[in-house]
Specification:
This protein has 548 residues and is of the alpha/beta class. It contains 19 helices and 16 strands.
């Protein structure tokens, strides 16, 4: 490894990419779940605006049958003859640590079940999961190697969320000369298309590549710079013409970005590493133009705002208000959603949200304990979350708040777990039980996060651990659920999942509360009136604005 190596004359791309210019780009999204390929579309839109002479084509392998992908890709490249192939690798994990993914139940049965039969069955299921994981790796790495071998005159860029997170493990496995892009790709693509001298690039390029047996990394310790997002809307009429798989998404959910960057520094989150902590807002009219085109021409009625957080402070709230008002003014008959902190929802914003078609909202609480919220650097106050939920309810909100709870985070105690259970009861009291969907979402340790560094410092992870290794020991460490609280938590989960994992979050919380009350009666206080087996709401000192 040679971190910080800069190649010829201080330019890490000079020796490997040359000076350009280049006149054609093929965007390829590698196979993953069928999700609107916003990353590749955004890059194509950027090239369209800043390099209109460059020919482009965009291929989404996610919607093609596996047996057809290889031949189709080769046929397209031979016909298009691109000078640059920009590959997007979105996903690398075949499991997620939450109840909607069967692998969580499978791993809990393997590690914690008392049934030998369940342990044996889960071990076979686990082997299938690991086999699928390695098959996915082989297919995607094989695609990159295939293109590098068959089209040596094309410059290959590899980016996307998967590569950004696991670049240290993936770069040595790439063909020599493939350029890995960490985080946002606009500046790197500008550089290879135009041959811009490094002195004129506004910030160091975050790249990693393998050449002649040596890995070179550049600017990986720097925070991604904020981008100027005041440019025009993505030219979706043009995207439709260069994107053969456009019709595969007719009537499906599509995503639109209103900003990039996240000012919060949540200990377990990757957004600050990938997008940076400085927020760049997009002009509301540009966002609305994209939404209207997708609605009118792709029958898009379900819009996902693909921001780290939809509401990230006063400027972002004002931007969001303008976007929601525009949805109403343009008569867009859509349902929209995203990651939302209810702490920013005022009565006026709640009214706009309801009238503009807000659907189910996902709220990443992690914990209902203010101490744990602070411990994980989440940057909100529980009383403000409750107040925002109340504003939504009073505005006539009738959909679901999906509350993501992550039990047993670093620093968790029995008392903080009970506070988390109580926070669920408080949200249910505000919104109605039927409008709250608690989801148990265990923390999966991710590279490049404060939590990873903390767990290395505490000895939970070895400094040289491999985050891509999948075996029972590494899975148990990366699916964070340590002793001693793993006992009651796993007991509650396995009990709840006997009736299936769908909508099992409330059953997990109910079982967890009962188990903790039985084992720690001194911490439980009196039962809350109207809720047998529930905890009382904590008192709130008058006039302080502080949660109890």
């Amino acid at each position: 490894m040679h971190p910080g190596a800069t190649g010829a004359a201080g330019d890490p791309l000079a020796a490997i990419a040359g000076r350009g210019p280049r006149g054609s780009v093929l965007h390829v999204r590698l196979p993953c779940n069928k999700v609107w390929p916003l990353g590749a579309i955004t890059l194509a839109g950027h090239v369209r605006q800043h390099h209109p002479h460059v020919r482009q084509r965009l291929l989404d392998l996610a919607v093609l049958p596996p047996a057809r992908r290889r031949d189709y890709l080769l046929e397209e490249i031979r016909a298009f003859r691109p000078e640059v192939i920009a590959i997007s690798w979105r996903d690398i994990q075949v499991f997620a640590p939450h109840e909607a993914d069967a692998s969580l139940e499978n791993s809990f049965n393997f590690f914690y079940s008392n049934s030998l039969v369940k342990k044996v069955l889960s071990s076979f299921n686990g082997l299938k999961m690991v086999a699928a994981y390695h098959a996915n790796l082989r297919e995607n790495l094989g695609t990159v190697r295939l293109l590098a071998k068959n089209f040596p005159d094309a410059l290959i860029l590899l980016g996307g969320g998967a590569f950004s997170v696991f670049h240290k493990q993936l770069t040595p496995r790439l063909p020599s000369g493939v350029i890995g892009v960490i985080g946002e790709g606009e500046q790197v693509l500008d550089r290879v298309l135009t041959g811009t001298p490094p002195a004129t690039v506004p910030a160091p390029l975050r790249i990693s590549f393998h050449q002649q047996g040596r890995v070179t990394e550049s600017a990986l310790s720097t925070s991604p710079p904020p981008l100027d997002l005041a440019e025009g809307a993505i030219d979706y009429a043009y995207i439709r013409d260069i994107f053969p798989q456009w019709e595969a998404y007719r009537g499906h959910q599509v995503s639109v970005q209103t900003k990039r960057g996240c000012p919060y520094r949540c200990a377990y989150c990757l957004y600050p590493y990938i997008e940076g902590t400085q927020v760049s807002l997009r002009p509301p009219q540009r966002v609305l133009d994209e939404m209207e085109f997708l609605h009118r021409h792709l029958d898009a009625r379900d819009i996902w705002f693909a921001d780290a957080q939809f509401l990230t402070g006063r400027r972002a709230v004002s931007n969001a208000e303008a976007i929601l008002a525009g949805i109403i003014e343009r008569g867009l008959n859509i349902t929209w959603s995203g990651y939302v902190r209810t702490s920013s929802i005022t009565p006026g914003l709640a009214d706009l949200m309801v009238r503009s078609g807000v659907g189910d909202l996902e709220v990443g609480l992690a914990s209902g304990s203010q101490r744990m919220v602070n411990e994980m650097q989440l940057g909100f106050r529980m009383d403000n979350l409750y107040r925002g939920a109340q504003n939504l309810k009073q505005a006539g909100y009738r959909h679901k708040l999906i509350l993501n709870f992550s039990p047993n985070m670093p620093g968790e105690t029995v008392a903080s777990l009970l506070e988390t259970v109580e926070s669920y009861h408080r949200f249910a009291a505000i919104m109605g039980e039927e409008n709250i969907y608690p989801m148990i979402f265990f923390i999966g340790v991710q590279p490049h996060t404060p939590m990873e560094q903390r767990l290395i410092a505490e000895g939970h992870l070895a400094p040289d651990y491999n985050p891509m290794s999948l075996n029972p020991w590494s899975i148990k460490k990366l699916l964070y659920n340590p002793h001693p609280l793993n006992g009651p938590i796993s007991e509650a989960c396995l009990e709840a999942w006997r009736d299936g994992t769908e909508d099992s979050g409330r059953r997990v919380l109910t079982a967890l509360e009962r188990i903790l009350r039985q084992r720690h009666p001194d911490l439980c206080g009196e039962a809350r009136p109207g809720g047998p087996g529930s905890l009382p709401a904590p008192p709130r000192p008058a006039g302080t604005g502080q949660p109890a």
